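Predicting structure from sequence has reshaped protein science. With that in mind, we have picked out one protein's residues alongside their backbone shape tokens:
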Amino acid sequence: MIALMAALPRWALMWLLAGAIFAACKLLTWWPHRRKAGAARSMGYLFLWPGMDARAFLDPALRPAAPRALDWVFATAKTLFGIALLAFAPQGPPLVRGWVGLAGMIFVLHFGTFHLVALLWKRFGVQAEPIMRAPILARSLGDFWGHRWNRGFHNLAHDHLYQRLAPKAGRAAAVMAVFLASGLVHDLVISVPAGGGYGLPSAYFALQGLGVLIERSAAGKDFGLGHGIAGRIFMAAFTAGPAYALFHPPFVREVIIPFMADLGIA
């Protein structure tokens, strides 16, 4: 197995690791709620939905409102914007090409396609909320990570890590544990395939956890870091400022750019 993994292109190893983690998380979230719905809905949850809120998705009693025409337009526009970024990616220095291409992939998948999939499920009466909920509108760092960015991981971490740790270790320790777990997962999917940059994604998410704790502290509340202009500036400084450490150069050079080349983009 190790020899097979070593023979894979670095980008293929990234997708393999991401897929294995995703599959494990899917089973973990599906198992407690597997008796709520029939086999068809379970298969849909396991194989045709990127979210992790099995409780809502598998409950046939929940009937969401039908998607509006504007929802379809917005989801399609985000997908097309990602495609445009990918088309623009071959311009500029290698690292810039890689980061632009990576942004395009995130828009095509996480913001666009996954939103379209959520709308399709809602169209057929299944409660499936988009995993990205307009993170650019976040009013604070806590709002960004807790309600708007990758709701799939948030649901998983909240139910299976935070709620179990908070009563025993306290809320602050539980918050840091969630962010450190996210950092380790990202190091596995980003740094291991890249063969470098180890620890940088973990450091990025540790910083996010500290930022959330600062925001919730008495001093943070006095400075208004949880809302308004101060909250938005604080959120942007913590999320975008150190993003270089999350999607670090070894990952862009060794994984993203070769992946783009094999796709015929770069």
